[in-house]
Amino acid sequence: MYKDKRGITTSPKIVEMAYKRKKRNIRLSILLFILFVVIIVGLSYLSNYKKITISNIVISGTHIIDSKNVEERIKEDLAGKYIYLFAKKNVFIYPKSYIEKDLRKTFPRIQDLSIKLEGLNTLRVEIGERTGSYMYCGSNIPEKIEDLGENCYFINSDGYIFDIAPYFSGNIYFKFYLPLDDTKDILGQNVMDKENFNKIIAFTDELTELGFKPVSLIMNDEDRYSLHLEARPDGGEPEILYKKDNDIDTIFSNLSSAMKKTEFKNEIMTKLDKLDYIDLRFNNKVLYKFK
Q1: What is the CATH number of the domain that holds 253?
Q2: What is residue 33's three-state secondary structure?
Q3: Is the pLDDT of residue 145 over 70?
């Protein structure tokens, strides 16, 4: 019998048993580590097995977006491995959420997106594109007429700016001119909050029903809105003026009531080619001026 370092009395047999136990635990730990490595290496190998990796990408629903660009972007997202071991293109661990997020960011025209597997080798991507109903063309109308339409972006029916627009002559699309947050990219912004945007669109539709032809909306530094109508023969555009804080339903009601008066309507519509502006900024008043 003897005492160990802690002063506890023990025997050689107990010491030998403790040594053997420690040695057995070390061997077991080594075996478990080797087994873990073997499993990881095996899974890494299996993750690259061709029968369970994405080798085909099918894109459908694109019209303006180039499907080849979408396919190349997906291939980039599937390239490489997780922690240098597991293939991202493996059907069981491919980064579906990341691909969806990346595609929406890279192609803002995408409105609806579905990503799903077909079998163990094909990734089917179905895309629904946003439709351009209106255009955003900067904070002000360019001074040079040849610059009109060169800096425009498509807007969807919610006021969301989603793509660069090609040049269109004339007034195919209703245009918005107003300042946006210049610290951000124009793509992805909203021209204004959805509620206000929808009210303005409804206002332009109601004006059309009254016989006017709205073509653009401009907001100046004083929060005054200037709704431009189709150009006069001299090239100038008549304006309908109102303030940002005006209630649109109220000012339209005022104009609609005025247009129901035969004398007022006849004067406006027969001299529309000489109209300078209709001013709705003042409560219950409809002011107007001809050139």
Answers
A1: 3.40.50.11690
A2: helix
A3: no
Give the whole-angstrom CA distance, residue 38 versus residue 35: 5
Domain that holds residue 260: 134-290
Cross-strand bridge partners of residue 86:
82
What tokens were used for 33? 């580590």
Amino acid at 10: T
CATH of the domain at 61: 3.10.20.310
The pTM score is 0.70
The residue among 100, 129, 158 that closes a domain is: 129
Which tokens in the block code for residue 66?
Answer: 């180039």
Backbone φ/ψ region at 67: left (φ over 0), alpha (ψ -120 to 50), beta:
alpha
pLDDT digits (tens, 9 = 90+) for 232-256: 888 788 999 999 889 999 999 999 9
- Count Cβ neighbours within 10 Å for each residue of 49-66 and write b for 16 or more, e otherwise: eeebbbeebebeebeebe
Mean pLDDT in the chain?
88
Structure tokens at 160: 């969301």
